[in-house]
Amino acid sequence: MALIFEVSEYQERLRKVKESMLRKGIQVLIVSDPANMNYLTGYDGWSFYVHQGLVIALDYDEPIWWGRGMDANGAKLTTWLKHDNIRPYADDYVQNVFKHPMSFVADILREMGWEKRHIGVEKDNYWFTGQCLDVLREELPQAKFHNATSLVNWIRTIKSPAEIKYIKEAAKVCEHVMKTAIDSIEVGRLESEAAANVYHAMIKGTDEFTGDHPAIFPIMPSNERTSAAHLGWKPDRKYAPGDIVLLELCGVRFRYHCPLSRTVYIGDPPKELKEIADVVIDGIAKTLDFIKPGVTAEEIEAKWREAISGSRVVKPSRLGYAFGLNYVPDWGEHTVSLRPGDKTIMKPGMTIHLMPGIWLDEFGFECSEPFLVTEKGCETFLNFPRKIFTK
Amino acid sequence: MALIFEVSEYQERLRKVKESMLRKGIQVLIVSDPANMNYLTGYDGWSFYVHQGLVIALDYDEPIWWGRGMDANGAKLTTWLKHDNIRPYADDYVQNVFKHPMSFVADILREMGWEKRHIGVEKDNYWFTGQCLDVLREELPQAKFHNATSLVNWIRTIKSPAEIKYIKEAAKVCEHVMKTAIDSIEVGRLESEAAANVYHAMIKGTDEFTGDHPAIFPIMPSNERTSAAHLGWKPDRKYAPGDIVLLELCGVRFRYHCPLSRTVYIGDPPKELKEIADVVIDGIAKTLDFIKPGVTAEEIEAKWREAISGSRVVKPSRLGYAFGLNYVPDWGEHTVSLRPGDKTIMKPGMTIHLMPGIWLDEFGFECSEPFLVTEKGCETFLNFPRKIFTK
């Protein structure tokens, strides 16, 4: 067992989850999201490509881990759970049209006498498929199913001091990663070589803090590919004069992320790009000045819109989102979004990526700031210059 | 538009998918798996963390791409589709409890007059959640839904010559990656530094072939962590004499993978490890000798069991699986599994990872071979020594 938090911290998280279950009328919660599994038990492995999860019941002390047999030793090594609460299934449940792991979970629920209960499932989570839902409904016809998507994620939204410490360490790694990326963009160099350097920096980390694998790959498109939000580098292409390159990168520390975006131009940036950069950078400063406990997500977005009003910049997509602990495919937490209609009230300990990415039809511009809501306002995790980096 | 295959190859794949739909009584197929999206249209971006997909109808020529607004330019740049068939949704569909992207898909289906049809969904795919299923059922009460999990994946199982070429190039990258990993394991070196070197090799590739991002992170646990199948390196730990290290790695070329596993021991390997290695390596050779078109997946597994019978080696999990084109979280195709009950007949063009990983309670051993079924037998993609590598 090699935990990165005190067992008491995991137990406190579990207590909050049970409190939320109670409020929502959920007696048993099936957790499928690997980040939620890690958050509550410490479980850490690349085994989420098969069905696995936790079962949490209001009247049962520990979560029950369930997963593939070959991963049970991984659960013993990485979680604080008693070994009795680690329940492996036989290998023929894996990707088999005749058997589904949710039948195994139903067996556990029947064995515990929980088959008629109010059961919460992470209904819109990647790791809880339509088939999971139908198998559970068929296996447990007397249960009442509740949509508990993001129930645990909302608990994750407020970070503890120990979590903030890891994100601050991830920020140090992130700074190193961003510098490495900017340094690696050179006329004549293959884009894949720059991306390789970025990965190396991300995994090795700094002399002080080792890194970790990212939940989103390095988003570093060039030129017309910067008109889209989620394209990668182009492996066989070499950088050339006049290139614009977006960098949406991160540092990671024990699965805790710190993301950051910047833009590089090879040569003298065109007037239109500079104008957009000026508006966005000014808008970020004004928005950050506004953020403090008590304001809502939509008020923050409105402040941004006010700051850029009268300019040519239009930003139809959300302005930011909560981030933190995660696995692929997203470092976002799927809770707070900075956009109209999101009435979440900012509280100390929230960590949000202010990400006003601009994607036009010909090119894009990115400059972002991850911030922590503090007692009196907010602070950014990095102090990285906000500008177009030129080479 | 920057495609890595001729448009005719994508169209041929689409034809085969429609043929399979017709056989199964499916008139409209909703594709959620990003690998299937790529396979049929070329679409390539890290945008699958929000709902996106294709709609394919028997009587409509092209697939319809649907996804988030900021990713539509990515679809225009990476697919062969007419721009009319790229259908972006507004940003407030993203992670919003009040609106779901499957309502947008239902809008498309109603607009096309397909709302009463037999509709296939990838029901047990990561990217098709329980919520997707319920929203579709509610939006389209007159439709008949079919489980089309892996329908496209089964078409992918037989690779074209152009695909095999990419996998062979990925194999060259994989060889470089494995050598880099073995070279990087040194007493006193941080595990994260070895992992960073592995990532660098995987992304940069060789002088001949650039690499790409992997669908599974480098699985390279040490010591007691080798008793589990899917643990990673331990960031802050340094290698020490007596370490056993598993390496389950890959090379990637334009999303086509070539996986490979080997085991490293620092020092003189203990007798038990050597005995297991001898049995497994002998079993691999005998199993590969047996494989040819016409034999079934379960017969291959039975041959393996015969080869290791009488030894102390027990292998309760499946012996291998189909691999190829993929995104996170898995390079496996979720079709063929080498195990009892799988009656899939081997055909030329199938690519399978023969992966007899052994995970005991104290340690593990891995040695694997990815192979291609040929006209007369099979050939491995690499010629990497099968042995315990010692340092």
UniProtKB/TrEMBL annotation, chains A, B:
InterPro entries: Creatin/AminoP/Spt16_N, Creatinase/aminopeptidase-like, Creatinase_N, Pept_M24, Peptidase_M24B. SUPFAM superfamilies: Creatinase/aminopeptidase, Creatinase/prolidase N-terminal domain. Residues 13-158 form the Creatinase N-terminal domain. Gene3D superfamilies: Creatinase/methionine aminopeptidase superfamily (3.90.230.10), Creatinase/prolidase N-terminal domain (3.40.350.10). CDD domains: APP_MetAP. Residues 166-375 form the Peptidase M24 domain. Coiled coil: none annotated. This is Creatinase. It comes from Acetomicrobium hydrogeniformans ATCC BAA-1850.
